[in-house]
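Deviations from the work plan: none for this task. Representative record:
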Amino acid sequence: NAGVTQTPKFRVLKTGQSMTLLCAQDMNHEYMYWYRQDPGMGLRLIHYSVGEGTTAKGEVPDGYNVSRLKKQNFLLGLESAAPSQTSVYFCASRETGRSNQPQHFGDGTRLSIL
Amino acid sequence: AQKVTQAQTEISVVEKEDVTLDCVYETRDTTYYLFWYKQPPSGELVFLIRRNSFDEQNEISGRYSWNFQKSTSSFNFTITASQVVDSAVYFCALSEITNAGKSTFGDGTTLTVKP
């Protein structure tokens, strides 16, 4: 009963380093999302995907890139990490784009940029 | 543009008290969906309830109840006889039909239930 799995759970980077966060879902969901959660704030959408091979920008896309080469995986990349990207990152999936469906979330990745 | 406001940043109650979490939203659409999610200290977000804009019936599920009032654009969440395990951050979210399924989240309300 995995649902949405995020890898890694924790990571510390130095400014300028790059890394990729992996999100994998086993529910055959079409839509996938990457959010960031900062203290005292709700979830802000970084990028999303409406299906394999597609990506689109969300509310705060700058400094991030994404790829959806396989339906079950949605990768979030930081090419040159900055301290402002210190946050908790959540991946979510939804069966389709229908607005009445809830999103299923991973456990989050806590990322610190020094 | 859609907006969700959770005016209460933090709420602290003593166990067995009732507590209401407020959620006010803005949208231009006539058809939309509202959600509540719970984020316990362990960090994952858990879906609690969904309500569509045409269904103003209040809903009760055990100790949880939800009051949706379209006239005031509010979707409030009440926990009756609160328990320590209810301590969490609660998020209200809005999804519009026309917005490719994207959701707008409020900033969350941190509920602390003390024994």
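Chain B touches chain A through 28 residues (CB under 8 Å).
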